[in-house]
Amino acid sequence: MTYRADVLIIGAGASGGVAARHLAEHGFDVVCLEQGDWPDRSAFPGARPDWELAIRKDWAMSPNVRSRPEDYPVVHDDSDIEPLMYNAVGGSMIIYAGTWPRMLPSDFRVRTMDGVGDDWPIAYSDLVPYYNAIDQQIGVSGLAGDPAYPPHDDYPLPPLPLGAAGRRVAEGHNRLGWHWWPEPNAILSAPYDGRRPCVQRGVCTSGCAEGAKASTDLTHWPKATAAGARLITGARVSRITMDPRGLATGAVWLDRSGVEHHQEADVVILAANAIGTARLLLLSADDRHCPDGLANSSGLVGRRLMMHPFSVVTGWWDDQVEGWQGHFGASITSYQFYETDPDREFVRGAKWALSPVGGPLNHILPMRAGNEVWGPDHHELMGRTFGRGASWAIFGEDLPEEPNRVDLDPERTDSHGIPAPRVSYRISDHSRRLMAFQEARAEESLRASGCRETAVASMIPYSGWHLMGTARMGNDSASSVVNTRQQAHDVPNLYIADASVFVTSSGVNPTCTITALALRTADLLVQHRSEQKVPA
Amino acid sequence: MTTPTSPAPTADIDIHRLTALADVMLPAAHGMPAVSDVKAVESYLPQVLGWRKDLHQPLVRAVDALDPSLFTIDRLSALHEEDEDAYVALTTAVAACYYLSPVVRELIGYPGQAAKTYDPFAYTEWVAEGLLDPVVDRGPIWREVPG
Ligand SMILES: Cc1cc2nc3c(=O)[nH]c(=O)nc-3n(C[C@H](O)[C@H](O)[C@H](O)COP(=O)(O)OP(=O)(O)OC[C@H]3O[C@@H](n4cnc5c(N)ncnc54)[C@H](O)[C@@H]3O)c2cc1C
Ligand code: SF4
Question: Which of A40, A467, A482, B41 is deepest in the core (most CB within 10 A)?
Answer without folding.
Answer: A467
